[in-house]
Amino acid sequence: MISRFTHMLSELLDKRIEDIPQATRERATWMVADTMFSSCFGFAAPELQGYLARVGVPQKDEKHSIPVLGTGLYTTKEHAAMLYGTAIVSNELDEGNQFAKGHPAAHMLAPILITAWEEKATGMEILRAFVIGYEVASRLAYASNMNDEMHPHGTWGNVGGAVAAGLLMKKDKQAIVEAALLAASLPIATSWEAAVTGMTVRNLYTGVGSFLALQAWTFQEAGFCSSEHVVEHLWGTILSKGIRYELFESDLWAPPLLDKNYFKLYPSCRFSHSAIDALLALQKEERLDASQIASAKVETYSLAARLNDPNPVNALSAKFSIPFLLSAILHGHSLYDSFAGEIFSDRSVRELAQRIEVTEDPEMTAMLPNKRAARVTVTDHQGVTYRAFVDAASGNYDQPFPREELLGKFASMLAVCVCSGDQTNEIIDQALALPDVNDFGEWLERLAASTGKRGAGSQ
């Protein structure tokens, strides 16, 4: 029986690439591509451009050796960890896992990318590290069920990132356990409020967490150590209300939790997606127009019910506002165009958002973590009500997007840094060929050259 985190970790470290089902490898390949392209898109954010202007250089040198995809720049290992981790989550398009209650892959990419670059890893070595690191992080998150007032970025994901890096460095099992315990000792003290109030430090959480995942190896190699009981103490009493130890073991590798991830097409907090899906289903049936609507009500699970502020102050807080998101959709706007400029400040969008109520339905909360449900009820000016219900958001492992929709998402994210459609298709093909890569460094250089039209400070 697995009675402790380290026992689970030890079992997972014994998994070889041959132990990873082919379907899991394929899913992991798409997840790496999705996360990598999310970073390309994220580097266009103003604060990331400002950061790059300070730490990026146009020519590779001994110190600045890590390419920053989509920018034509290079940076140091330390800044690359923070840049990639931050960029991935900046547009709310990165994958996630409802059992982990967060975004594991966002914490895997930078430690894997940087270490694989240094170690000249193969694609198969990367996939093994990604799958095992993802499982470690997700299981820690699932079992500890961190306090809801904390934001998950920069916390349990750091541990998976450290494990993945150790696997790529071909460290022995004892060393990886030691580094994992060090990473488990160094979560950031995060705040959920940062997200809903639009404070972009929330994005930095993942960047700093990625940095700490790599630093865990510097600390381990220097001789620092942490207690085997750190998970039980820190994660079981301080960061949560108690660990459910059986979740370290329940269905372990049957299948890997990576197989239960979700992909995102809507650029907003995942907790808003069930409400969005319900509204879109309603619109498809009734063709509702914003001018017809007197009010709307969203009933959903507890975590989503917190996204109830109708007055977002900036792009990030708007991505965490169900009233704003639904109002923008009811006005016929694409969410991709709704977080800046005229649509963001549109008076009609803002007024309707004030009339959209978001409340918790305890029965839907009780369905967690397996189902994330929402019911949307719209009332028009004649008093007629329209209602739609979904028990889970689209893109979930049991409601997967068609391959073509994910390819379209990849192309859209790459549009900020690639000139032509043909070039975009070539880059996507290269990314999805990761299992066949023999030298990750050469592969990454090719991708960097193909996506390098945008430098820091460009528009």
UniProtKB/TrEMBL annotation:
GO MF, any single term: lyase activity
Domain of life where this protein originates: Bacteria
Residues annotated as domain MmgE/PrpD N-terminal: 14-237
SUPFAM superfamilies per the UniProt record, alphabetical: 2-methylcitrate dehydratase PrpD
Record-annotated MmgE/PrpD C-terminal domain positions: 266-433
Family statement drawn from the similarity comment of this UniProt entry: Belongs to the PrpD family.
PANTHER family: 2-METHYLCITRATE DEHYDRATASE, 2-METHYLCITRATE DEHYDRATASE-RELATED
Listed name of the protein: 2-methylcitrate dehydratase PrpD
